[in-house]
Amino acid sequence: MEPDAARRLCIQFSRFFPEKLERIADIIKTRRPSAIPLSAARRIKNLDTVSEFSVVISDEVAQLITLLPPKSSPLDCLPVSLLKHSVVNDVVAPLLAQLANLSFAAGTFSSMYKLVHAVPLLKKLGLDTTDPTNYRSITNLCTFSKVLEKLALARLPHILSCDNFSRFQPGYSTETALLKVVSDIRLRR
Fold first, then answer.
1. Is residue 151 part of a domain?
2. Which pTM does this prediction carry?
3. CA dihedral 77, 60, 159, 142 (to 10 degrees)
4. Is residue 183 part of a domain?
5. What pLDDT, on a 0 to 100 scale, did the predictor assign at position 160?
């Protein structure tokens, strides 16, 4: 591919996927106009909320790290193999436990851990490689984000048993999961 054509394709990709997410968000907003904004929901009395998470301990973090697959993200500051080695020496686990506890106590998740490495993959061989709609985006978070996510999920067992959590969600794209949720909502009306 010529350099100019490759540059144009990169620009198309950089616009296509964020615009796609905006379109999905707009569709959801128009179909659920009666939804309560999160800021307003926080002011409603007697709303079931999670007021605090249980404390994360180093051993829990160490166990999660030892179970991680060996693949690393390009966003990782150190490879998973080195991270696993640091668990043996009890170096990183206490720091990640402290990071998780601070994050959970503040109710925030640092924006640096929200960054993703996105790779567009062709949906099927033979499709037009110059059309961004023929690609799906594969996103990869840094390993620390994945560990923090698993720690938070372990503190929210009711989410997994909730009727709104789809048991079909793992293994499917975010778009498919969103379409399933929207479909379920429409069928309940």
1. yes
2. 0.63
3. 10
4. yes
5. 59
